[in-house]
Amino acid sequence: MAFDDVNPQAPVHVLVIPRIHVESLQGFQTSETNLMGALLQCCREVAQLKGVSDLGYRVVANTGSSAGQTVFHMHFHVLGGRSFAWPPG
Length: 89
Known about the structure:
The protein is of the alpha+beta class. The chain has a single domain, classed as HIT-like (HIT family, subunit A), CATH 3.30.428. It is 19% helix and 19% strand. A 4-stranded antiparallel β-sheet has the order 1-2-4-3, with helices on one face. β1 and β2 form a beta hairpin. The longest helix has 17 residues. The chain is globular. The termini are far apart.
C-alpha cells in the first residue's frame, strides 16, 4: 500500500507499507527478500507517479525508537520535491 503522509516533511511524502505485519526492517526474515524487493519497487513507482524520479528523491526506513521509528509497522518514506542535506538528521 502507498499513501500520502498526514504530516509531510517534504512536498512529496508518501508512505509505502506492506500488507503483512512486520514491526521494522530488522523484523524481516531472509525468506522475505521478494517482499522487500517489491516494496522498493513500489517506492520507485511512487516517485515516478509523483513526478520526482528525474529530480531525485529519498527513501527512508526508520528502524527502532532511537532512529525515530514511532509507528511499529514497517514502512518506507518516499520524500521528494525539495533539496535534502547530508548527513540527515
